[in-house]
Specification:
By secondary structure, the chain is an alpha/beta fold. 36% of the residues lie in helices and 21% in strands. Strands 1, 2, 3, 4, 5, 6, 7, 8, 9 and 10 form a ten-stranded mixed sheet that branches. Strands 17, 18, 21, 22, 23, 24, 25 and 26 form an eight-stranded antiparallel sheet that branches.
Length: 906
């Protein structure tokens, strides 16, 4: 390699004090690259000391002179290159003639070995592409994208500058989805802020585009300032003060009020307090960020708005959006701070102060306070012990309290399995009980040596002998049972040895294996095998019908309508309903079985009919004696089945699985010829299996429209009284479609329900119905303005109640049009969704109501809905006629006549 220049020079900058082991790991990742023409160049003041042995061992590939490669890749000591990193970067650079080429990087998530990349990398590096300007990949300039994982031509490297400078001035930048750099250090929010602030000032000085400047300012707050504020929760009081004083001037001019308004209320307040240098305020805000929904300050009301405190009555500190003023006392969680924890006369004395609830501010009346301290044991079968308080009273803007706890005599645990106990304050105001309040404490408040007390476990003092108050990792006060004296320590040591020496370990291992085998008997794989090879061969149970709606998540939709018609006309029908988690709300006169339970499989194997609207588990083949009625769950706007791009890209086994699942359908309901040309064709359903009778669930809507025309809209359905909706309010149902939210995460509603409540709260009630495959968290709003009805079993009942439907492109629009009531499409992402998923028609051209893409436009439509609805009646009726041609109100009757009554010989 002396005579041939390398393709890539990996420059490792070594500051003074660079660890030799970290540098060795980084250099080894360079030498192990699959691209042989690479070299490691050690630079910096620490290179000579830390890299002397490396340059001696690898003189041809590890150097301390200037880089010679066509491209230069920066790497920090301790960071590693993925084995094919240099090969992938060089290939992309040669293919695209790019000056700069970049890919993904990961960093540690904590002290362990787990690594993860920032979430924004998924979009930036989602596919290989070439960008020639900032507008094509703004994240390169908005985020700290080029702090690692990139290579640049050596001629450009020689000009100097940061990764941001390189991205801003590059002629062509190639982005690749490959992983380049790993083992970057975990973020240090408290320590990284000074460097981030300096980089932010440098970037804003170079950026001229207003949109990029605003996006960069927003990213700086969310990526650096807010995490720094969150980290204040674990910092000691003295350090908090030092950091706040040091960071306030650093952030001067970088925390723009306009950008702050785009953040969530608590993040906005935390950033503003940090910029103001308010150490205690940031610490309190950090607690609120860690425990959403907790009231942490005595909020002040000013000109109809709620603010963080009486000292912060201006815009950044507006907390009206949190809705704390609208919560009932029973729904409040208050910051309950421990102010003193000490041992007095053999007892534990705890004093604290809880934040004054918003309902108690600015009132002249005297409030009756009741309180006690509850100690809750952790672990299975744990007990609770309640201790009365010595004193509780209102003091300024807090509720001050004091408790004397005789731990030795009051708390008598077993001593094994119940060693940790959490005290909680039970507070009542005027007879209304608040939720239990944890005791927020700092380590400086609890002197562990001075607060220890004797313990008397029921199993004897050899198990443990001391109560030790301490502060948990979650910053709450707790007490722990410990063996402090020699007899208890010796007994515990012997117990540990007895449970960890070889025979005990062997017993534990065998017990774990037995538990695994027992769990395997109830696994889905085992159940599927037993179902296929045994249960499916059982004889049919004549007249048994298994119903399921939306994979057992509700008792509703067309299966419910068919069930009710069947039960009304055929007494004694053997009806089985499946439920996913909770049987509440399912018919009590039916046999209820949990989905994927053994009883569920038994019922499916022996049933004469299956009826559902989504699809019974694909792995379960239909018995020969069973007739499967698929009612389906809605007409199609988006492409379905084999028309979907993702299905076209699947392999043969995946396509075969879908074909087998759909092939089980014996009858498939359609409500128009649109369903025939879309759903039936997309799922390859033969003509002879189609039933042109409409959707049974829509019989209720057809009847409701006839009743409206005959008698008018009032009185409302009984559901209105159940939800507490008075007749004078306009009921708006918001029902968006499924967008594929990842599991265990809440869906983000495109409609700002809080803004809706502020605009229409006096006259309207908004019902929010999240898709059954998703869940959404709603903000707190004034009572009666916004109601979450996602858990209501039957959406048809909600449709009959609603005066207006707001949806996007959900199939619910086809059903609601049958009522001939106002329909509005709020779809900010319509074009993107149609381009990504594909659609069967142009919604804007054929909709039965206005299509809007902004909240302001939606509000304007709703404000004039009575005046403008007449303009849409003709289009809406045409929409209903086209997509619901077979919905005549007799679908359930037609299904029972065609399938159940005939087979029963009646």
């Amino acid at each position: 390699m002396n005579s041939v220049e390398p393709d890539i020079s990996v420059v490792v900058d070594c500051p003074p004090g660079t660890a030799e082991a970290a540098l060795r790991d980084s250099v080894r990742s360079v030498l192990d690259q699959t691209l042989a023409a690479t070299e490691a160049v050690l630079t910096g003041e620490g290179a000579a000391a830390a890299g002397a042995a490396l340059t001696a061992d690898h003189p041809r590939r590890v150097r301390t002179e200037a880089p010679r490669g066509t491209f230069v890749l920066p790497l920090a000591p301790g960071e590693l290159l993925e084995r094919n990193a240099c090969r992938n970067l060089l290939a992309a650079a040669r293919r695209t003639d790019a000056d700069l080429v970049a890919g993904r990087w990961t960093r540690r998530t904590g002290s362990g070995a787990k690594e993860q990349g920032p979430a924004w990398q998924q979009e930036l590096y989602g596919r290989s592409r070439v960008v020639t300007g900032p507008a094509e990949a703004p994240e390169l300039l908005v985020r700290d994208a080029l702090t690692a994982g990139y290579a640049v031509r050596r001629t450009r490297w020689a000009e100097g500058g940061t990764g941001f400078d390189l991205a801003l001035t590059a002629r062509r930048t190639a982005l690749v989805p490959n992983l380049i750099t790993t083992r970057r250090p975990a973020p240090d929010p408290l320590g990284d802020l000074p460097a981030a602030a300096a980089a932010q000032r440098h970037a804003l000085a170079l950026l001229t585009d207003p949109a990029l400047r605003a996006a960069r300012a927003h990213a700086f707050l969310t990526d650096h300032v807010v995490p720094c504020a969150r980290a204040f929760l674990g910092a000691a009081p003295g350090r908090r003060g030092e950091l706040a004083a040091a960071y306030a001037p650093l952030l001067d001019g970088l925390v723009d009020e306009g950008v702050l308004r785009e953040l969530d209320p608590l993040e906005r307040i935390a950033a503003a307090l940090l910029a103001d240098g308010d150490a205690q305020g940031v610490h309190t805000a950090a607690y609120a960020l860690a425990r959403p929904g907790t009231v942490v300050t005595a909020q002040a009301r000013h000109e109809g708005r709620d603010y963080w405190s009486p000292e912060h009555l201006h815009s950044p500190y507006d907390v009206t959006g949190l809705g704390d003023g609208h919560r009932p006392l029973s729904g409040l969680r208050l910051l309950n701070r421990v102010t003193r924890c000490a041992r007095e006369d053999g007892r534990l004395v705890v004093e604290g102060a809880a934040v004054l609830p918003p309902a108690l501010r600015d009132t002249e009346r005297t409030h009756v306070l009741t309180a006690s301290l509850e100690l809750v044991g952790r672990g299975s079968g744990a007990r609770t012990v309640t201790v009365p308080l010595d004193d509780v009273r209102l003091r300024d803007d807090t509720i001050a309290w004091r408790a004397t706890v005789p731990l030795t005599t009051v708390l008598r645990p077993r001593g094994i399995g119940d060693r940790n106990w959490d005290p909680r304050l039970l507070l009542g105001v005027d007879g209304e009980q608040l939720a239990p309040l944890d005791l927020f404490a700092e380590k400086e408040t609890v002197d562990t040596k001075a607060t220890a007390l004797p313990a008397r476990p029921r199993l004897g003092r050899l198990t443990a002998d001391t109560w030790q108050p301490y502060v948990t990792a979650g910053h709450h006060l707790a007490v722990c049972l410990l063996p402090r004296r020699r007899p208890a320590r010796t007994a515990n040591a012997l117990a540990r040895y007895a449970t960890n020496f070889r025979p005990a370990r062997v017993i534990k291992q065998r017990w774990k294996k037995l538990r695994k085998k027992f769990a395997a008997l109830h696994s889905q794989r085992t159940k599927t095998s037993v179902y296929r090879h045994l249960l499916r061969r059982l004889p049919v149970s004549r007249g048994t019908v298994v119903f399921e709606s939306h994979m057992g998540k509700c008792y509703g939709d067309s299966p419910r309508a068919v069930h009710e018609e069947l039960v009304a006309r055929r007494r004694g029908a053997r009806v089985v309903w499946s439920y996913a988690q909770d049987p509440t709300g399912f018919p009590q006169d039916a046999t209820l079985v949990r989905r994927w339970s053994w009883r569920y499989l038994w019922a499916l194997a022996r049933a004469e009919w299956w009826v559902d609207n989504q699809g019974f588990p694909h792995a379960l083949d239909k018995p020969k004696h069973t007739t499967y009625l698929q009612t389906w769950h809605g007409s199609a706007y988006k492409r379905m089945g084999y028309d979907e791009i993702r299905h076209k890209m699947q392999n043969a086994p995946q396509r075969e699985q879908l074909m087998r699942a759909v092939g089980r359908f014996d009858r498939f309901l359609v409500r128009s010829e649109h369903d025939v040309t879309t759903l039936a064709r997309a799922y390859r359903i033969p003509e002879e299996r189609l039933m042109r009778v409409g959707y049974p669930r829509n019989d209720r809507l057809v009847a409701a429209r006839a009743r409206d025309e005959r008698e008018g809209r009032f009185p409302r359905p009984a559901l209105a009284a159940h939800l507490g909706i008075p007749d004078h309010r306009t009921v708006v149902l918001y029902a968006p479609t499924f967008r594929g939210t990842p599991k265990n995460k809440k869906a983000r509603l495109l409609l700002d329900v809080r803004e809706f409540a502020e605009r229409f709260g006096d006259t309207h009630t908004l019902l929010v119905r999240a898709h059954y495959m998703e869940a959404a968290t709603l903000p707190v709003t004034p009572p009666g303005t916004v109601l979450d009805v996602s858990g209501h079993h039957d959406v048809s009942e909600l449709l009959c109640l609603a005066d207006v439907l707001v949806t996007d492109y959900s199939s619910i629009m086809f059903d609601y049009a049958l009522l001939d009531r106002p329909l509005v499409h709020f779809a900010p992402d319509l074009d993107d969704y149609a381009a990504e998923r594909g659609s069967y028609f142009d919604l804007r051209a054929r909709s039965g109501g206005p299509v809007v893409d902004t909240q302001d436009a939606l509000h304007a439509v709703l404000a004039r809905i009575k005046e403008t609805d007449a303009d849409w009646q003709e289009a809406r009726r045409a929409f209903a006629a086209e997509f619901g041609a077979y919905d005549d109100g007799g679908a359930a009757r037609a299904v029972v006549d065609a399938l159940f009554t005939r087979k029963a010989g009646r």
